[in-house]
Amino acid sequence: MPELPEVEHTRRRLERWLRGARIEHAKSRDARIVRPVSTRAFARQLTGAKIGRVERRGKWIRIDAGTHRLFVHLGMTGWFESPPLDAEPLPFERVTFVLARGRKRVRVSYVDPRRWGRLVLAREDLEAWTALGPDPLSDGIDLDVLQRRLARSNKRSIKEALLDQSVLAGVGNIQAIEALWKAGIDPRSHASALEARDLLALVRALHWTIERTLADLAKGDEGADNPFRVYGRKGEPCPRCATPFTRIELGGRTTTFCPGCQVRRVRAQT
DNA sequence: ATTATTGTTGGTAG
DNA sequence: TCTACCAACAATAA
Question: What pLDDT is stored for residue A221 in this prediction?
Answer without folding.
Answer: 65
